[in-house]
Structures are given as structure tokens and as C-alpha cells.
Amino acid sequence: MNLQIKDLSKTYSNGVQALKGITLTIPQGMFGLLGPNGAGKSSLMRTLATLQEADSGSVTLDTLDVLKDKESVRKILGYLPQEFGVYPKISSFKMLNHIASLKGVTHKGERKDLVESLLHKTNLWNVRNKSLGTYSGGMKQRFGIAQALIGNPKLIIVDEPTAGLDPAERVRFHNLLSEIGENTIVILSTHIVEDVANLCSNMAIICLGEVVSQGNPQDLTRSVSGKIWRKTIDRKDFEAHQQEFRVISSHLKAGKTVIHVFSDDQPNASFENIKANLEDVYFSEISSRMEALPH
Ligand code: ADP
After folding, report:
1. Is this structure's pTM higher than 0.85?
2. Which residues have CB under 6 Å of ligand 1?
3. Which range of residues forms the domain containing residue 78?
């Protein structure tokens, strides 16, 4: 199974060009879509989920025309949007039962088995009779996944899922996604590089509506290997370094500023070469593009 996106473009009525000819091949497994805020991730996810129209381009899932045959897509799609409301007074058991019957699981016994298995899978069994309004952020996300899984979707789209989750909830959510990703296409849209590094076998980086890099995380990391240099500087020297070197990222450590510089050769003796990670790939791709923007 393959999702093929070709030359997908979208300009909103306010003139913002959110997608500029996106071309991507997404195979079975977990696929990470990384990009800064405003990159076009949600626009792409909503288009794939048949919730908005593209201006041009094509999307196919094997032989299925995703942009035209929306009804068929909806039957095989599980979508977990960035934010979703829950009915606060109803329990997860009742709500899943209700959604399953809306999605066509009409046989009562079959529906009960399905809902029970989903509650176990998403670790909500113990709280199945509590009202959704009392759930933590992580529990709500897992409920979102449970409802997205009804109907055995072949394509699952998860938009920015871990915002607001505590570390333990995040790990649990990740494990659940990995399990699901074994026999479906799961697209995980996020700006958290670590989530993609930990979970995804394939990925793309998008920035300002364009694909700037795609492949598997290990290969992409290897592609910058040997080219990432680190230096610890005073904050006041940051601008000077930015003028002289290609600074891709900076962070504070014990009151000092640690910069990462992208360079084929050692910039000078004050820089040390470090083992590159996916974050270095990400920042080397997006930093120059973002800098070009007016602030
Ligand atoms: P991301 O999910 O990567 O943060 P979005 O797809 O939400 O990116 O946004 C891409 C660009 O399109 C941004 O500049 C955003 O302001 C703009 N945008 C998103 N949705 C709309 C909309 N409905 N109308 C107009 N502009 C939009």
C-alpha cells in the first residue's frame, strides 16, 4: 500500500500559498511529517483527510483517487485532528459505542466486542465508565485514537498529537501509534523532531509549503554526518557568530550559549565536531529558509 501525493498546491482566499507543489510517496508504516509552525502540515493533513479541497495536484492510495472519491476515502480513514472536542458528560464506552454504530457496525454483539477491544488497546478500560470531561490530556488523546480506529482504517492521520501530554502519557501514546503502524499507513504530523526520530521509518520535512527533504531518519542523519560543529559562546557574541558562520541552532546551557554550525570543514580550531542527530538535519534544512523571512 502506497500513498502518492503529486504536485499538490493550495492557496487560501487571503492569498496565503500554504502548499506549493508537494510531492511525496508514503509507504506502509509510521511516516513523520516535520515542519515549523505555518509550514503547511495541517493544510496537507486536512486535504488528505478530505476535509478541504486542493487547487491542483493528485493524491492516490493504490488505485483510489483520494481527492475525487471522498466517500471511499472516509471509509478507510482514521483522522485525529490537532484539537477535537469531546462531549464532557458521556463515558468513553458509550461514546465509542455510538460512533461505531454511526460508522455502520450495526450488530450489537460485534459492536460490544469492538468497543471493548479498543478500550483495552488504548488503555482506557479502567476509566471506560467515567465521563470524558474528567479525562486528562493523554486520556483524551487515546480516546481520540480509539475513535479513529473504528472501522479498521488503512490510513491514519494524526495531527500534532503530543502537545500538552506529560512524558509518561507521551510514551504510552507513542507505543500505541507504533503498534498501529505495523499494518497501516500512519502519518504523524508534528514539529517535535524527537518524536519522528523515535517512531518513524520514513519522514519528510516541509517548510513554507514545500518538501525540503525526505527519506528515512537514519539516512538523513548520515547525510549531515561530519558537518555539524559545536561551540560554546557568550550570548553577546551570538550575532557575530551568526554573521560569520552558518549557525543552524542555539540553546542555553548553564548560562552559556551553545551553537551548532553547519560546515563541510572545521570552521576554526574553537569548534568541535559532534555526532549529528535528526535535529541537526531539521535545523540545517529550515534555518536558512526561515531566516529569509521578514520578522
Ligand atoms: P502548520 O500546520 O504546519 O502549522 P498550516 O497548514 O496550519 O501549517 O498553515 C500554513 C499556512 O496557511 C500558514 O501561513 C497559515 O496561516 C495559513 N492558513 C492555514 N489555514 C488557513 C485558512 N483556513 N485560511 C487562510 N490561511 C490559512
Report:
1. yes
2. 12, 14, 16, 18, 35, 37-43
3. 2-215
